[in-house]
Structures are given as structure tokens and as C-alpha cells.
Design a protein that fits this description.
Chain A has eleven helices and no strands. Chain A is mainly alpha-helical. Chain B folds into two domains: 4-229, P-loop containing nucleotide triphosphate hydrolases (Rossmann fold, 3-Layer(aba) Sandwich), CATH 3.40.50.300; 241-381, Beta Barrel (OB fold (Dihydrolipoamide Acetyltransferase, E2P)), CATH 2.40.50.140. In chain B, the strands form five sheets. A six-stranded mixed beta sheet of chain B has the order 6-7-8-3-9-10, sandwiched between helices. A five-stranded antiparallel beta sheet of chain B has the order 13-12-11-14-21. Chain B has a four-stranded antiparallel beta sheet with strand order 2-1-4-5, with helices on one face. Chain B is elongated and about 75 Å long. Classes of the chains: A mainly alpha (276), B alpha+beta (393). The complex binds adenosine-5'-diphosphate (ADP) and magnesium ion. Chain B: Keywords: ATP-binding, Cell membrane, Membrane, Nucleotide-binding, Translocase, Transport.
């Protein structure tokens, strides 16, 4: 009994340390976002004067709202396309034997390892020439490219776990290959699809390198890039409070997203498919 | 209901493995046919070709007289029960069973009625709204059967459907599968590696070895008239005893003594041009404690005396095991059978003869026993080809 209590205490301590270590910067930013301009630099963790003014300010200007719309739109579209393409590719990799399969896997691994920063200049030149610079597709396209390897890897791991026989059973039950995929395989891969979608979305949502170098105006600038242009309401104002508020606003959707789908991600849906 | 014909059906996998070669089987409407053979002999491959899950390399598959080689599985109207059951884990039992009907666009009322009928037959009514993961092995197996029977397909294909159940449940389910098939009268092809299932279930049994059909016949026929050494060793439990022997002028010299063949056996062997060196086979049930054999009957057989190694009393009968000095007959077929049964070679030469004696036998372990066997039930095989030299089919 004593041993287990001691063990529990030790684990609790480790857990607290890890959580505080991981969350401290986030909490600090949250705290900053609720402080008034006067108390901003007082060094207190808990604001002495609470205010929602920073939030009101960022939503009062196009400086934040427009990038927020860009971020949402670009990340959602890129995620959708990457996941759908990734599903098809991953299914093929997990299930079929086709010429060039190894090459496909190799190339996608190569892309995943490619340093993105080295592509910024060529991409800038290409996009300028094609008229894609500072447009939504100008960001969506590179995001898909860099998210696909991630999507293919995560998804093919999930597809490989789905028993082959379920698909045979569906065929015997009278399903076309399409019906077998959408009614049996896809629902079972759903946890994998959601996990992948979240990972890809976060990747697009957080990107700064492409966002800062392939955009120039509010037409396509996303929030991470826009934050670096924040000036506050007047030129002479310290924008720390508003930047913090904006940072909180763009973190919340991700947290909600993950919390909302957590059950689906974790659920071991495939259990009980075969004997077990 | 359907008649299924395999006409010289061959399967060569892309990697070059020949899994089934020149398979000829005619399955009549409503018949229950078993494909049996050791693991890896091509049973599942054959079944998958009938199902349409594997392409046929050459030969023709006809269902109801029509070529079906190129038909997609869904257009063959055949249901399959998988070894792993392959239940859809994200659907309830009801939805699992309704799935084939939904795909066939059957209306809701009919689906409900058919699923409930099937659940009634299979005793699943109270489990309809549960998930497969919450069911026991036997219940899952019944759901898999239910999913196959709801849409009244032309034929059932079953790939080792009972092999994931424990021995007792397997026995029970065997009886229910047999009853169900009789009740529905649907053509069924059933794959198993278990000779007991093959003997008890089927109208006809197809014995496979290395992708080649060895013999097709009713269980009793295969037992009485095995075409070759492999079938003789595979069918029957415990399996037939094989000893090397020399045949001269109707007299057989073997480790079990010198035996004068009966006229019937002798004529068959002569007609088959039997060589001098043969393999003699006797089933355990054709031995008896000599003390229990009537004098008048004794002359029709031969006896040998040896110490009993092990005696197993089963209540209704006794199994006595003897060791004979000489090596038992070994041929490729017999080695394969032994490997399949998981047996390893006993070191130091000599091998075991299994005999089944009446319960009233007074045999004791370690004591000498005189054992009689029926000379008319001896079967002789050609050691090189495995052919049954006393085949009278
Ligand atoms: N997809 C495959 N590719 C290549 N060889 C295969 C494949 N499936 C089965 N085989 C081979 O074909 C033979 C028969 O296999 P199978 O039909 O599964 O046997 P059984 O069901 O009788 O155990 C085996 O030797 C096996 O190795
Ligand atoms: Mg098999």
C-alpha cells in the first residue's frame, strides 16, 4: 500500500512538472492577453487588472480578421485535398502491388525530409511568374505538397491494420469496390483519417516560412505571418497585448479540434473484427 | 441454388507458386462438398477462385452452366463464411446481417423480416443490437453464418469456419452447420483441414494434396477404398498403420508376420500388377485381441505377439500401441502426412502400430499380447507411386 502511494505521488509530481513545463509559455501568453497596457510589463503571472480590450482591438481591425479568414480557408482546403489524395495513395500502398510502389514511397519520404526554407526562393520565383504569388492557391499548393507525405504515412499505417478479409467479405456481400471502400474500409479508417486531418491542419495552420515569403498583402496573408506585422492601434503603441490575444485566438481552434476528436482518435474501432 | 463445375481449373500465383492444378470437380445442386487436405494444399485458393476473390489462371468455372471466370464476386450470388468471421466491427449484429440485403437495395420491411428470421434460426435474437466485439467466439461464428444465409444465395462457401472455436463448441457447431445445410438445401463448399469434419459433414469429400485432387467420393467410400497412400493415411482417425512388406505368390512378409492374402486381395493385387516391394496398410479398427476372436473366424486373419507399450482405455474401446522393430514405411506422402500431424521422427528406429481393441480385452501395459487382424482388410500400396494396389472402386 505504502509503495503504491509513494509511486503515485512520484508520478503525480512528474506529471505536474511536465505539464507546467509544456504549458507555461502558453499560459503566460494567455495572461498577457488579459492585461491592460499599463500592467503589461509588471511581471505578474496573474493580471492585476483584467481586460478584454486586446480581444476587442484585434477583432476591430481588418489586420487580424482578414488573415484569420485566410488561415481558416487555406488550412481547411489544403487539409481536405491532402487527406483525400493521401487516402487514395495510402490505400494503394497498403493494399496493392503496383509497379513503382517503392519509388512512390521513397519520393514521398524525400519530400518530407526536404528543408522547406531551401525551397522558398525558387517557389517565390515560380509563383511570381505564374501569378500565384500572394494568392490562396499560392499557399495551398506547397502546403499540400509538404503535408502529403505525412498524410500518406499516417493513413497507410491505419489502412494496414484493417483486416483484408473485411474487404473480401464486403465483396462477397455484393459490394462494388467503391462501396466496400466507403462503407467498410473508410468508416474503420475514420480514426486514422481524423488523426491525419488534425496533423495536416496543424501543419498548415502553424506554417510561418511559406506564409511570410509567399504573401505580401491581406489577400492571402495568414495569421502567423500577420502577427509579425501587428502594430497596435497607433504606430507608437506596444502591440504585445494584441499579439498575445491573437495568439490565443489561433490556438483555441486547434485545442478544441483535438479535444473534440480525441475520442474518435483513440477509439479502437477495429477490435472484434477478427477472432480476438 | 446452383450447380458448380470446376473444369481443369488451375491457379498460378504471380510469384510462380502453383497452388491448384487441373482441378476437376462437379458439384450438384444442393450438395454439401468438403475440400480437405493439409495446410497449404490449395484449399483456400480453390474456394477463393469459386468466390471470385482470386483470378483463375486457366480452366473454366461454371455456375449453373454459365462461365463465371470473369464475373465479379458480387455478380456470382454466392455467400462466404471466413475463418476469421470478418464481421464488420463498426456495425451491430443486425446491421452486419442486413448488409448484403441493403447492398441489394431490399426494402426496409423485408430486411427487418429476413434478418429476424435468420436470427431466429441461429439463436441470435437477443444479441441483434450488440457489437461483434462484445460477442463470444461461437456467437460471432453464428453471426457470420447469419450474414451468409439472409439473402438466400445460390451457394455457400465456408473456409475453415469452425477452426477458431474450442473443441467442444466445434463439435456442437458441426452438428448445427450440418442441420442448417440440410434445412436450407443450398449448395455448399466447405474447406477444412480436419478429417473428422470432412467425414461427418459432407455428402462428398475432395481430398487435395499439393494443389492436386487425390480422390473424390463419399466419406465412407474414401475410408473403404482410398485411391492412394495419401488418402489412406489422411482419412480415418487414428490413421492407418503402414508397414513395409514383400509380396510373393500371394504371401506377404511383413514386420507383423507372414500373412497369406485372401483370394479377393490377391486377385486385386495381381490385376494391379503389384511389385515385390509393397507397403501394407491396416486400420487400427481391423485389429482385435486374439483371445476375443472366435476360433472359426481366426483363420481368416493373422496374428502377431508383442508387448503392449501404451494402453489407452476409452471406456467403449481400448487403444493398444506396439513397437515394431523395422522402420515403418516412409514415402513422400507419408512424410507429408506426418509433418502435417506435427509428428517428429522417433529416434532409434522402430515405429508404433496403433490398434483398437474391444473394451473387454485384458491387455496390460508392458505385457505380451497376441493380436489378431483381418487379412481381408489389408490394403497394399505401391511405395514409389503411392497407388493403391488393392483398389476396387
Ligand atoms: N497470395 C499468394 N501469393 C503466392 N502464393 C500464395 C498466395 N496465397 C497462397 N499461396 C500459396 O499457395 C498454396 C496454397 O495456399 P492456400 O490455398 O492458402 O492453402 P490452404 O488453404 O489449403 O492452407 C500455398 O503453398 C501458399 O503458400
Ligand atoms: Mg486456408
Amino acid at each position: 500500500m505504502a509503495v503504491t502511494t509513494g509511486r503515485k505521488a512520484r508520478w503525480a509530481l512528474i506529471d505536474v512538472v511536465v505539464v507546467v513545463y509544456a504549458l507555461f509559455p502558453v499560459l503566460w501568453i494567455a495572461s498577457l492577453s488579459f492585461k491592460t497596457k499599463e500592467t503589461l510589463a509588471d511581471g505578474n503571472f496573474i493580471p492585476r487588472e483584467w481586460t478584454l480590450q486586446n480581444y476587442a482591438d484585434i477583432f476591430a481591425t481588418n489586420e487580424f480578421i482578414r488573415p484569420l479568414i485566410n488561415s481558416l480557408g487555406i488550412a481547411t482546403i489544403a487539409t481536405l485535398i491532402a487527406v483525400v489524395l493521401g487516402m487514395m495513395a495510402a490505400y494503394a500502398i497498403a493494399r496493392l502491388d503496383f509497379p513503382g510502389k517503392k519509388a512512390l514511397i521513397g519520393v514521398s519520404l524525400l519530400i518530407a525530409m526536404f528543408p522547406q526554407i531551401s525551397l522558398v526562393t525558387p517557389l517565390f520565383n515560380i509563383e511570381s511568374a505564374l501569378g500565384l504569388f500572394d494568392t490562396w492557391p499560392g499557399l495551398i499548393l506547397p502546403y499540400i505538397t509538404f503535408a502529403l507525405p505525412l498524410a500518406i504515412y499516417t493513413l497507410s499505417a491505419f489502412f494496414r491494420e484493417i483486416p483484408w478479409e473485411l474487404e473480401k467479405a464486403a465483396k462477397m456481400d455484393g459490394a462494388t469496390p467503391g462501396q466496400a471502400f466507403w462503407r467498410v474500409i473508410a468508416p474503420l479508417a475514420a480514426p486514422g483519417v481524423f488523426t491525419t486531418a488534425i496533423l495536416v491542419f496543424i501543419f498548415c495552420w502553424n506554417d510561418f516560412v511559406f506564409a511570410i515569403s509567399l504573401t505580401s498583402t491581406e489577400a492571402s496573408r495568414t495569421v502567423p505571418a500577420a502577427l509579425s506585422f501587428f502594430t497596435g492601434t497607433s504606430q507608437f503603441e506596444d502591440p504585445t497585448g494584441t499579439i498575445s490575444a491573437a495568439a490565443v485566438v489561433i490556438t483555441v481552434p486547434i485545442v478544441l479540434f483535438v479535444l473534440f476528436f480525441q475520442r474518435r482518435i483513440v477509439a479502437g474501432l477495429t477490435s472484434g473484427a477478427v477472432k480476438g | 441454388m446452383a450447380e458448380i463445375v470446376l473444369d481443369k481449373v488451375t491457379k498460378r500465383y504471380p510469384d510462380g507458386a502453383l497452388a491448384v492444378s487441373d482441378m476437376d470437380i462437379e458439384i450438384a445442386d444442393g450438395e454439401f462438398v468438403i475440400l480437405v487436405g493439409p495446410s497449404g494444399c490449395g484449399k483456400s485458393t480453390a474456394l477463393n477462385m469459386i468466390a471470385g476473390l482470386e483470378d483463375i489462371s486457366s480452366g473454366e468455372l461454371r455456375i449453373d452452366g454459365q462461365r463465371a471466370n470473369e464475373k465479379a464476386p458480387k455478380d456470382r450470388d454466392i455467400a462466404m463464411v471466413f475463418q476469421s468471421y470478418a464481421l464488420y466491427p463498426h456495425m451491430s449484429v443486425r446491421e452486419n446481417m442486413a448488409f448484403p440485403l441493403r447492398l441489394a437495395k431490399v426494402d426496409d420491411a423485408t430486411v427487418k423480416q429476413k434478418v429476424e428470421e435468420a436470427a431466429e434460426i441461429l439463436d441470435l435474437t437477443q444479441h441483434l443490437d450488440r457489437r461483434p466485439s462484445n460477442l463470444s467466439g461461437g456467437q460471432r461464428q453464428r453471426v457470420a453464418m447469419g450474414r451468409a444465409i439472409v439473402r438466400s444465395p445460390k451457394a455457400f462457401l465456408m473456409d475453415e469456419p469452425l477452426s477458431n472455436l474450442d473443441a467442444k463448441l466445434r463439435g456442437q457447431m458441426r452438428t448445427s452447420v450440418s442441420k442448417l445445410q440440410k434445412q436450407l438445401g443450398t449448395t455448399t463448399v466447405y474447406v477444412t483441414h480436419d478429417q473428422t469434419e470432412a467425414m461427418t459433414l459432407g455428402d462428398r469429400v475432395v481430398v487435395l494434396r499439393g494443389g492436386i485432387v487425390q480422390q473424390i467420393g463419399s466419406p465412407q467410400f474414401l475410408y473403404d477404398h482410398p485411391a492412394n497412400l495419401f488418402v489412406a493415411g489422411f482419412i480415418g482417425s487414428p490413421s492407418m498403420n503402414f508397414v513395409p512388406a514383400t509380396l510373393e505368390e500371394g504371401v506377404l512378409k511383413s514386420p507383423l508376420g507372414t500373412i497369406t492374402l485372401t483370394d479377393r486381395v490377391r486377385r486385386l493385387a495381381e490385376a494391379a500388377d503389384a511389385p515385390r516391394e509393397v507397403v501394407a496398410g491396416i486400420r487400427p479398427e481391423h485389429f482385435e485381441d486374439a483371445a476375443l476372436v472366435e476360433e472359426t473366424h481366426r483363420a481368416s486373419g493373422a496374428t502377431f505377439t508383442a508387448p503392449v507399450d501404451v494402453l489407452e482405455s476409452m471406456g467403449a474401446e481400448k487403444y493398444a500401441y506396439f513397437t515394431v522393430e523395422e522402420e515403418l514405411a516412409t514415402t513422400a506422402e507419408l512424410q507429408e502426412l506426418a509433418a502435417d500431424a506435427g509428428a517428429t521422427d522417433v529416434p532409434g528406429g522402430g515405429s508404433t502400430i496403433v490398434t483398437r481393441l474391444s473394451a473387454s480385452s485384458e491387455a496390460r501395459e508392458g505385457q505380451q499380447l497376441q493380436v489378431w487382424f483381418d487379412a481381408d482388410r489389408i490394403q497394399l500400396f505401391d511405395p514409389s507411386s503411392g497407388r493403391n494396389l488393392t483398389y476396387s472402386g
